[in-house]
Amino acid sequence: MPVEDSRIKGLYTKSVDERRRIVAEACSLTPEQVQALAAHGELGEEAADRMIENVIGTMSLPVGVATNFVIDEKAYLIPFCVEESSIVAAASNMAKRCLTHGGFTTNNDQPVMIGQLQLLEITDMEAAEEAIQQEKAALVAFCNDVPSRMIALGGGCKDITTHRLSTPLGDMLVAHFLVDCRDAMGANAVNTMVERVAPRVEALTGGRAHLRILSNLAAHRLARVKAVFTPEEMASNGTREDGLNVIAGILEAQAFAVEDPFRATTHNKGIMNAISSVALACGQDWRAIEAGCHAWPSVKHGRYTSMSEWSQDESGNLVGEMELPMAVGIVGGASKVHPAAQANLAILGVEKAQELAGIMVCAGLAQNLGALRALSTKGIQAGHMKLHAKNMAVSAGAVGEEIETLAARLQAYDGHRSQSLVESWLNEMRNS
Ligand code: NAD
User: Fold this and answer.
1) β-strands 318-325, 308-312: how paired?
2) pLDDT at residue 6 above 90?
3) Whose C-alpha lies nearest to ligand 1, atom 36?
4) Whether 356 contacts 281, CB under 8 Å
5) Is 164 helix (H, G, I), strand (E, B) or coil?
6) How far is residue 389's CA from residue 404's CA, in Å, rounded to a whole number?
7) How far is CA 400 from CA 396, 397, 403, 414, 427, in A?
8) C-alpha span between 335 and 236 (Å, rounded)
9) What number does the ligand 1 atom closest to the CA of 291 have?
10) Where is 126: in which H helix or E strand?
11) Which of 85, 100, 191, 405 has the highest Cβ tally under 10 A?
């Protein structure tokens, strides 16, 4: 059962150790479970306690490195932080299949984020919009008149646009502040800016500024990737004929994702398997990135559909393209305070946020191809089972050599593979 009472007064005033003890008692945790929470790796307890509220411990996930990526003629090792097996292997495998044509090519927008200002109770919409446009230069200058490294480096507010909304609660005016965030993701910088400028806009328009917040639909901060995969590279046996069959199957699978939102959701989840894993490894706000990426196809195509595009060129090659909003930073946020995020950024060796954005869409495209290729050939479970078999053995209670033995037996097994089957095999092994 959950806890008897979830109201723990003043939990935030306690030390991490005290909080852990309180929670352990309330939840009847075993000493091993308490130890699991107390054990911390690279993120020390003090640093963790500064990051969020009511900290009782930290939690680790594996970091794996995807190989074979060549992006804009540079070779990268890409760190993924994720709990799901096969992701890193699939991305690495697909990344080497576009090397004939030089790997991945990216084209990334300037790092411009949108700060939204919601204006209510405006009596003359046209006059309000005009007033903002007439005073634009002064408003932009006001926004940028703060001591900020981001602005000193050429970032800051660059433009202001407006649009009207008709809602059941009446008409609203929305102002977008377009802010170049340079190498920061920019949430704090943008939120601070729109909060500060809001009274000025109220005075100009006669309206009441309500919400003042960044939009995670980073429509001006798009990252684009293109890669070409030859039939020989796509083949299982190296022949052009086999590769052309594989490509035909991938295009059929793609058509399904384009037309059907049920399929598109899973197709796009596969893309985010890479993008979110790299984001997490590099200390990014992966929720913000996920929100933006999932919204983008609807904005671009007027309905939810595949994030990626796959086609065949006149030489029979498979061509993959993708464009996604990518709000990432290499300064600020967790990228600066989490030692492992710093190490993972060092593995990438990125010098600009835009470079990280480009790498992430490449990883997403490769991941997408991995899933499409597996699904349209031998199915996804064969690859998944390699590592998952070990997880199933551990879940059944196997230790030491039992894990390998059970995993090997499970992989070779042709029938229905279930957790209870693995448990019965373990019992058999131990009793024989
Ligand atoms: P931040 O608040 O640390 O700001 C970046 C700082 O770095 C600025 O002060 C800037 O002047 C400075 N800087 C130094 N060198 C720079 C360079 N080369 N380019 C740009 N700036 C440079 O970080 P942030 O990126 O503004 O905020 C990111 C954090 O905000 C994330 O942790 C995110 O989770 C969180 N957040 C997200 C949302 C959201 O809606 N997505 C909302 C609020 C907060």
Assistant:
1) antiparallel
2) no
3) 187
4) no
5) strand
6) 9
7) 13, 10, 6, 25, 15
8) 39
9) 41
10) helix 125-134
11) 85
